[in-house]
Amino acid sequence: MTRLHLHLLSDSTGETLEMIAKAALAQFDHAEVIRHFWPMVRSLQHLERIAEELAANPGLVLYTLVNPETRMKLEEFCRARGLPHIAALDTVTAVLEDLLQEQAKGRPGRQHVLDDAYFARVDAIQFTIAHDDGVLFEHWEEADIVLAGVSRSSKTPTSIYLANRGYKVANIPVVVESPPPPELFELRKPLIVGLTTAPRRLIEIRRNRLLTLNETPDTAYVDEQRVAEELAFARRMFADNGWPVIDVTRRSIEETAAAVIRLYNERAMQDGSHQTGIKPI
From the centroid of its chain, how far is CA 15? Predict the structure, then answer.
């Protein structure tokens, strides 16, 4: 197995770099990658301290530094040490400058500026947290998206991920013994999406959940017949109301959220809206 030191240097939070590195590394199965994460690199003094670690653990340097002086010093150091180094956003930024006929601003953390989109995202997160697990159903009409599904079908993590993209999300557990409030079936504004999964996968997740809570695994919560009935009940509810359904069995949270956003955008286009579900980041 090949070992690689990967240094991620950013003059902001480093979220962009982490996503790029994660997406690229997902293509390689047989490598041991040791990540060194350096956010908020905005001074030569800070860079000098990092340089010691780069020298001690040589590897690939991936960076997003817009300050010319700091960037130049890093590149000079990498060249002197023979370290491969890549400015992660240079190619995209250059193409955008050419197409837009505008010089990039070159401000650290510009994507995190406190504009209206930022506060809208904060509002979406607060709404989503407040409306988790069927709470405050009287406000569901204010949501952009409502997720429905049986227990442990990834409703909450998907909701939080969508909220970070700027969507107000409510989610409701589908329980055989406790039907949802009638208000759910009267909603007009939100997109309602049903989440389902394979019985065996659901049982596995639930058993792991019980173990983490130090509870007995021998309950109806993980009984095969009972779980199958729960899922069948949920699927009938989704079908009876014409709600789109996403099978999360082999999907990551990010993939499930992407499928929800696609449905949201498709409905917006069908409604003749000029605004899609794409939210500023």
Answer: 11
DSSP designation for 150: S
Q: Encode the chain (281 residues) as per-residue pLDDT tens digits.
A: 578 999 999 988 888 888 889 888 888 888 889 999 999 898 999 999 999 999 999 999 999 998 889 999 999 999 999 999 999 888 887 888 888 888 776 655 555 555 567 778 889 999 999 999 999 999 999 999 999 999 999 999 999 999 988 999 999 999 999 989 999 999 999 999 999 999 999 999 999 889 888 887 778 889 999 999 999 999 999 999 999 999 999 999 999 999 999 999 989 888 765 444 445 44
Same domain, 138 and 63: no
**Domain hosting residue 182, numbered range:** 116-270
Q: Give the residues across from 36 on adjacent strands.
A: 7
- Residue 279 forms part of a structural domain: no
Residues 76 and 162 in one domain: no
Distance from first CA to last CA of the chain, Å, rounded?
37
CATH, residue 203: 3.40.50
Alpha helices in the chain (DSSP H): 15-25, 44-56, 68-81, 90-100, 116-130, 155-164, 199-212, 224-240, 253-270
* 82 conformational bin, left if phi > 0, alpha if psi -120 to 50, beta if neither: left
Decide: 246 and 148 in contact? Cβ < 8 Å: no
